[in-house]
Amino acid sequence: MSETQSNGNHNQYAVEVEHLTKDFGSFRAVDHISFTVERGQIFGFLGPNGSGKTTTIRMLLGLLRPTDGEAIVLGTDVRRNPEKVRPRLGYMSQRFSLYDDLTVVENLRFYGRTYGLKNDRLRQRIQFALEMANLKGRERERTRNLSGGWRQRLALGAAILHEPDLVFLDEPTAGVDPVSRRAFWDLLYEITAQGVTIFVTTHYMDEAEHCESLAFIHDGHIIARGSPQHIKDTMMRGQVLELTPDDPTLAMGALTRAKENGQLPVDEIALYGAQIHIVAPDVEHYQGDIDKVLKQSNVDPGMISVIAPSLEDVFISCIRSEEE
Question: How many angstroms from the chain centroid is the CA of residue 104?
Answer without folding.
Answer: 27
